[in-house]
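Example (one chain per record):
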Amino acid sequence: MIMQNHKATGKKGELAAREFLVKNNYEILDTNWRFKKAEIDIIAKDLSEDVLVFFEVKTRTYDYYGNPEDFVTERKKQLMLDAASRYMEKINYDWAIRFDIIGILWKDDNNVVIRHYKDAFFM
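Predicted structure:
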């Protein structure tokens, strides 16, 4: 039951992140894109800057141990870099990219905080 709740929270968070991005001038290109052991939650184009952006979305229902975005590990960053490289090859893209994190604290349906961190880590 705990795993189902965790997955459901993650899915709700990813949906909220997509809605947030669309409202903020992003075009969603792909979601839950996988390459080997890596998954990129959202791939979007920042229409205001003409940049391809790879998003990691972290959703939590509590912040006792830190904010959701604090849980993006170095290993996850490396996996995202590898997957992003493969995605760029696949679509023949060689322009500006960025890696962002969206942290969502979802205490309940009336108390949701979305934080967007642009350029959250570097290659």
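Caption: The chain has a mean pLDDT of 88.
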